[in-house]
Amino acid sequence: MATLQETKKPRTLKEKLLHTGKRIALEKERYILILPGLVWYAIFAYIPIFGLTLAFRKYMAKLGMFGSPWIGLKNFQNVFADPAFFASIVTTLRINAGRLIFVFPFPILFAIMINEVRLGKPKKILQSIYTFPNFLSWVIVASIMINILGQRGLVNSVMGALFGTKPVAFLGKPDYFLPVIYLTDIWKTAGWSAIIYMASISGIDVEQYEAAEIDGASRLQRIWYITLPGIKSTILVLFILAVGNLMSGGFDQIFNLSNSATIKVAETLDMYIYRITFRGSVDFGFSSAVALFRSVINMLLLIFADRVSKAVGGSGLLG
Amino acid sequence: MKKVLSLVLALFLVTGIFGAVAEEKTYDRVTITYTCPQVVAGYDYNNGDDYSKFILDKFNFEFQGTNVGWNDWNSSLITWIYAQDMTDVAIYNYGESTATEATNIVNQGLLKRLPDDWKDRWPNVAKVYETTSLGPMLEQLYGGTYFIPRARFFYNLPGDPLANHWCLWMRSDWIEAVGKEVKSAYTIPEVLEIAKLIKEQDPGQVGAALAPISMDEGNSASFFMRANSTYWDTFYKDADGKYQWGAATEDTLQGLKYWYQAYTEGVLDPEFYLLDYEKDMEKFQTLGTAGISFLGGQTADTENYRILFEQRTGNPQSAFHMANLLGGDGYYHQRDLINFWGAVCFKPDIKDEVFERWMDLMEFTASKEGYPGTQMGLKGIDWDFDENGEIISLVEPGTLLAGAVGEAKYPSLGHVLGSVILWDDLAMDNPNIKKEYRDESKKLYAERYTLSTPETFVKVDWNMWMNDSDELRRANSIDYAAEFANMVTNATSEEDLVNRYNAWLESQKGIIQPALDVLNK
Fold first, then answer.
1. How would you classify residue B507: left for phi > 0, otherwise alpha for psi between -120 and 50, otherwise beta?
2. Any chain B CB within 8 A of the CB of A276?
3. Which of A291, B268, B449, B467 is 20 to 30 A removed from A79 (C-alpha atoms)?
4. Residue A61 is nearest to which of B110, B217, B478, comparing CB atoms?
């Protein structure tokens, strides 16, 4: 029986459509599996793109998104006149660049560590322990942190009892804000994020490890020469995505862990958008202008990371 | 003679019946949805206490109340209004910072315009409405009625401009223990001095948990900034009639210095910026670990606050002292509170019968017959009128009528079920509240007038309230309390504080100057 590859290459649009249809029919199970994801993206990611038109309009609820008066770049002029906007960009980049350096490697380390645990039961227990915090909301984590890091919290009490130190405002000093953000991020998400690397590790041919063991490779050497190269493409893809997200993300965490004392180092773009949209006077046009600006920068960063990845010999996301 | 008598009797019966019909209007069942932070979350008003049953039966409706958090009140309601998904009735948090937003939503037709004859149809509500001063002003601005502000006072208005009830909560036993005088008004420096002594001497033997002054961020801003600088977070007209920014005044900087002093001397709760809503109150009223707070002093609550304080901390009610707070200059500072709090508004496409039902309910609660019930429960059971028409209480003194579920007789009492006259009005005459506390409250109100000048306690500037420019809206989005709290917690010295303050003033010019230009146009 002739396969699709063996058939003549489609030339006309009709032939192309027919060809695509046949391919889908042949692999319909896979397409059915990705269908919910596609629907989700269509509803929550692609359709809302049309909302960005608000960035160029003065929003009038009665007139709707497309009937509201067009005001050109007025919203952008207002955005760029606000010093808090530029400060929030710097803050966002600072926090998220730090995440790439300090938080991003931890799931990889966790995945490798868990992979190296040979006994099944302890491995599962460890995995559950690391994964559990992911299911706590940031509101809960923030409450826990207040009890642990507050001036009358666990850490200060222990430090006071052991060393007689004065209480430290871990949650109220800008200097501690970033470490608190990164540590809580690692504690909460690293176990969960490690799952994708563990899946990638499980795809590495076991024979490579067996051969290396016979050749006398140590455990560290096996990790360095087999495991890490084996998951390199996964790491790169996730790294590119993380770079593409440099201008957003982490709103829940920062919203719950920041306060007035730390707000100058905590007001990321998301926090800024939240403040101007819900804490001040509602101006959807203004908020949309900020959001559009953020999306464009994120897109540029994503393309940049993709190109860099390819330039250094890795794979990319964008063809 | 018999015929005449029969005729008179028949006429009497007929008019009596007609009278009864006119009095007891019958209604078809409707469902009314409602939003307000005072809706008791999780409380089933439809199967709740006898007061809610009385109101819901009388006006024959099912009540679906939505509770919104105090912090999310504006944002949630405005979002629902813009999404054209608001409840039938809502309480808009009308205020200086939300006024421009209100104008915007009215201009967009997102709220119901009341029928032009509404004042004739609901005369009691109209009478209350006139006393709010905001209502008629908005009517003039919008060319119709879109909001019915709820009056703080109707029979007992303390004065014009209207003073706020906010006051110092102090431990009188601790003040005496540190050798200071218990009095009815203190300046900010006096309070800081007492707090310092409390910190040094710990008269209550509280230990490490002691908070000489416990206030969350918002109340700290009210204490140090608002009480010292009348215009700390807004614009004002100077002697030349030109608008200036209040945040840039000397009084504001002085308030900021007081705040910094309290923070660095350790008399203010060291993590005031982490305190959630009412946690400062909890430290004073429940835990008994705070010496001073700056919280509500509503006449209606003066006794309840003390009863709970006594029950929870084991201290006598006399240890709970209330006093006025004055600025460093010795004067009481405030901008006109204006005689309203929260404004009733309706969704634009509300069904006529639902709208009319709520108006009828408000008409009842604004009437002499219905108004006492909003705070005192059921007529004939909890209260009544004596032969002189004065309200008398029928319950044991100390009976908790309104309050939390499980504690109060009628958790539904309050401002939710149609009240247009708020509590403090009746509270001043409410026989259920100890006379001693009512007199204290009246005295505190009176002092706010005698301890102020027309420059420190100022009348409302309607010109600014009614301005709905985008420039002013953006200027109103500054979170002053958070900005000043940030300076206080991060400054390394008073000099550094002043530098931070000046740098911040400079950084805000891009937002402030356009607003000033609009106001001064």
1. alpha
2. yes
3. B467
4. B110
Of B131, B166, B155, B163, nearest in space to B298 by CA: B166
Looking at this protein, which amino acid is placed at residue B212?
A: P
- Angstroms from B386 CA to nearest CA on chain A: 49
| Three-state SS at B292 | strand
- Read off the CATH number of the domain in which B35 is found: 3.40.190.10
Confidence class of residue B33 from pLDDT cuts 50, 70 and 90? very high
pLDDT at residue B13 tops 50: no
d(CA A287, CA A308): 32
Task: Tell whether A58 is covered by a domain.
Answer: no
Residue B17 confidence (pLDDT): 44
**Predicted ipTM beyond 0.95:** no
Ranking A97-106, B112-121, B437-446, B459-468 by mean pLDDT, the lowest is B459-468
DSSP code at position A316: -
Chain A residue numbers touching B486 (CB-CB < 8 A)? 260-261, 263-264
Contacts of A284 in chain B (CB under 8 A): 82
Mutation site for A-interface testing, chosen from B220, B470, B487 by largest number of A Cβ within 10 Å: B470
d(C-alpha B214, C-alpha B279), whole Å: 9
How many angstroms separate the CA atoms of A116 and A301, rounded? 35
Provide, as residue numbers in chain A, all residues whose Cβ is less than 8 Å from the Cβ of B476. 280-281
Helices B188-201 and B250-264, packing angle to 10 deg:
0
Averaged pLDDT, B157-164 = 93
Where chain A has pLDDT below 50, the residues are: 1-2, 4
Q: Is residue B18 part of a domain?
A: no
- Residue pair A260/A235 in contact by the 8 Å Cβ criterion: no
A:57-86 residues touching chain B, CB 8 A cutoff: 59-62, 78, 81-83
Does B350 share its domain with B410?
yes
Structure tokens at B312: 């929870």
Contacts of B265 (CB under 8 A, 6+ apart): B192, B196, B199
Percent of chain B with pLDDT over 70: 95
Contact across the interface for A278 and B79, Cβ inside 8 Å = yes
**Is residue B265 domain-shared with residue B383, that is, in the same domain?**
no
Domain extent at residue B207: 167-336+458-520
DSSP B478: -
- Over residues B122-135, the mean pLDDT reads 95
Any B CB within 8 A of A160 CB: no
CA distance B492 to chain A (A): 12
Give B97's contacts in chain A (Cβ within 8 Å).
281
Q: B107 and B237: one domain?
A: no
Amino acid at A112: I
What is the total count of domains within chain B? 2
Question: How far is the C-alpha of B192 from the C-alpha of B260, rounded, in Å?
Answer: 11
DSSP state of B368: T
